[in-house]
Amino acid sequence: MIPLLVTPQSRWRWQVDPPLPRIISAWERVGVRVQASPHSGWYPHPPLSHAEETRGRGQQAGPPRLRPYSLFHLLSATEWRWIARAGVIVLLLWVCGARGVGATPSGQPTTPADAPSNAARRRPRIVNGLATQAFPTTGALLAALDPRDPNRFTSECSGVLVGCQTFLTAAHCVCPEGVDTASACIAAGLTEPSALRVFLQHAGVLSIDSVIINPAYTFAVESDIALLTLAAPVTGITPSRINTTGTPPPGTTGTIAGFGITVDSETDSGVKRYGKVVTASCDGRVPGVTNVCWDFTEPLGPPGGDSNTCEGDSGGPLFVDFGAGERLAGLTSGGRPTCWPRSFSWDTDVFYERHWIETEAGADLNSTTCGHLPPVGTPRADVQALSGELSTTVTEQRATVQVPPGTRVLRVVLNGEDEQTDPPRTNDFDLYLKFGGPPSGNDSDCRDIAAGPYGACIIDVPAAGTWHVLVDRVSGAGVYQLTVTTFGARRPCAGDCNDDGEVTVTELITGVNITLGRLLLDQCPSFDVDADDLVTVDELLRAVSNALESCS
To answer: How many Cβ atoms from other residues are within 10 Å of residue 24's Cβ?
Structure first.
């Protein structure tokens, strides 16, 4: 028998539910002692005969003699389920203690091959793609048009959220134009965090606290990667997991996403698009050990099924499913000679860069949920994707949104094309929101009139009913996307880290590691059902129950 001793040092406590006293009583009726420890714990002891009780430490006591099935006769099926749940907890404790579950694999990346000359065309680089408001971790990196004007931003690159406060993009996106190495970039000066913003369609426009690049960065060679730390954690979005499986081999199908342009000569960046690619050999054009490559060839396949990156997509994700869900396998880096067919493109290999990412991002990289809002993609986070086009003849567009009772947060987020083509002009679209009636320029519950096509209205505990949205053209013309997300009250389900209505063995192990101090509670707040910043044995038992019987 494995004794289960609970101590204050482990921050556990027993909260005995009704079946447990009967279980204890049943043990005692068959001669099993339940002894309280000095640390407020308890554990069962097998029954001993009188002779066995008087034996010294060096003597072996024989196994207790119990009447066959006597315990089965004394306990109900419900009580046996509680014993099974407790047994799962003991097993998880033993596994985590003996095998160190949660340890980060070690190892060093291999040395990249020599790269060809830097004749490749540098592209803050989706062509033949489809517009989308999915891929919630894919964001735009906005840069100030004028450092002296902190309210006017335009889309510079793309990127991806990999932690609640960690956003990855390409290194060349935060270096001066034409600077192709880390040393030269640092000497010339990285873009100041105050001159940058991260835009996410389900969160809004976010400030940045710090910017770093990989010190090994050389464009078209290796490590075209930068890590941005957000000023505050994102909520309601599950970060993307990075690839730790291996470099995608040639012939692997993946999904690219970004806010870049669709044609070399266009200025339609600022709209999120996605498409499929099939990886190919880098064939010496860039080092294959540090990059993931593909060819964009003719005949061209259907939109969204045969795509390419272009200007403004740099830093955006390449997602690949290795068998356990999509992982971030690449970050858009460059391509040549154009974005159109008969072109060659490459991404920074995230697998090669994984150790640098893990070191710089720290524990935030392991975040499975952010905050106490249900994440986008789960039933209690409803998304309404709207889009339209503004011009000199269509200067405004309106929509209504139904907000259900119990909604904790309403987010209405706007993005659009940065510029019109003819004549060239920067777009400026404004956002207005009002409950119960149409808004106007001077009558609204929320408005975002910052210069540019990006904005957000975020309402905590909004009134249930009809909300009215106005997208108003100030200048320019082009397509916009309006993403409305309503976050319902998160139903307490102990152990359901990703709020998908199920508790898995992996999530149970996460809970045990939180209890043992190996992971922070932020990795899975749902274990803390009573919100006392502790994970108790009772809460672990609830999680086991949810794993066995679902969260319903």
So the answer is: 16
Alpha carbon 127 to chain centroid distance?
26
Q: Are 268 and 478 in contact (CB under 8 A)?
A: yes
Domains along the chain?
Answer: 8-102+491-549 (no CATH), 381-488 (2.60.120.380)
Find all residues with CB under 8 Å of 343, minimum gap 6, and list them. Answer: 295, 296, 308, 335, 336, 337
Q: Which residues of the chain fall below pLDDT 70? A: 1-125, 150, 264-265, 420-424, 489-492, 531, 552
Q: Which amino acid is at 18?
A: P
- Supply the pTM of this predicted model: 0.71
Q: Residues 46-56: pLDDT tens digits?
A: 333 333 333 23
pLDDT digits (tens, 9 = 90+) for 66-122: 333 333 444 455 555 656 666 666 666 655 554 444 433 333 333 333 333 333 334
Distance separating alpha carbons of residues 116 and 279, to the nearest angstrom = 20
Exposure string for 453-476, b = 16+ CB within 10 A, e = fewer: bbbbbbbeebeeeebbbbbbbeeb
Element (DSSP H or E) covering residue 506: helix 505-515
pLDDT of residue 365: 96
The values of phi and psi at residue 212, to 5°, are -135, 155
